[in-house]
Amino acid sequence: MTTTKEETPRQRSVLLALSERFSVLAVVAGGLLLFGMSWFIGVEVLLRKFFRISTGGAEEYSSYALAILSAWSFSYALFSKAHIRVDAVYLKLRRNARLVLDVAALAAFAAYALPMTWYGWKSFSLSFTKGSLANTPLQTPLWIPMLLWILGIAFFAWAVLLLLGETLTALLRGDTATASALAGCPLLEEEIDEEKALAAKTLGATETKREEDR
User: Fold this and answer.
1) CA-to-CA distance for 79 and 96, rounded, in angstroms?
2) Is the Cβ–Cβ distance between 110 and 153 less than 8 Å?
3) Which end of the chain is less crowded, N or C, counting CB atoms within 10 A of the terminal residue's CB?
């Protein structure tokens, strides 16, 4: 059976692919940051328990780390379609109806991300200009964690606009398959195929390891 052009999604643009790759690197860096903070907190607990002393920064820096890695994970969740959707009705709709909901979802993301970026940047600028310090013993300059946080929010806004723009471009040229691949909710069959592929890859790696050990 031949496959029509509309049934085959086009390859993602270079800009979108690079942005998605960067989001992966950012979330890996965030994971390393979270891992480091867990060790920091563990050391803090031991110092308080056995030596009655404190570094004085575990709670403060862990709060900064959580805000920063959360902001940078938004774009990764968007690209990997990890956001929770109530799809009981969505999956029963025709493709065109699903695309309307997909575009509306991206537009809702944009309506959140753009004002968040604007007001976040204004808050950062104010803290930087005034030289605001944290009301803690360490007196951390607030513009440092705020800059790392707002950059993550700004990248999320960029990812939303890029994905929305490419989805609308695909729709304008009548390429509904690409639009669905970009913005659509993963179908149950697609998730099953993905899990099968991952399981097969893991099994293959395990078998290879066993052969090498023999």
Assistant:
1) 21
2) no
3) N
Pick the closest to residue 95 from 192, 189, 179 (CA basis): 179
How many other CB atoms are found less than 10 A from the CB of residue 186? 15
**pLDDT tens-digit profile, the chain (214 residues):** 334 444 677 778 899 999 999 999 999 999 999 999 999 999 999 998 898 888 878 888 999 999 999 999 999 999 998 887 777 788 788 888 999 999 999 999 999 999 999 999 999 999 999 999 998 888 999 999 999 999 999 999 999 999 999 999 999 999 988 998 898 887 666 667 667 777 777 777 666 666 666 6
Residue that has been written with the tokens 């030596």 in this structure: 51
Q: How far is CA 192 from CA 93, 180, 186, 199, in A?
A: 20, 18, 10, 10
Q: In 5-26, which positions are buried (b, 16+ CB within 10 angstroms) versus exposed (e)?
A: eeeebeebeeebeebbebbeeb
DSSP code string of 38-57: HHHHHHHHHIIIIIS---S-
Q: Are 117 and 150 in contact (CB under 8 A)?
A: yes
Residues counted in the chain: 214
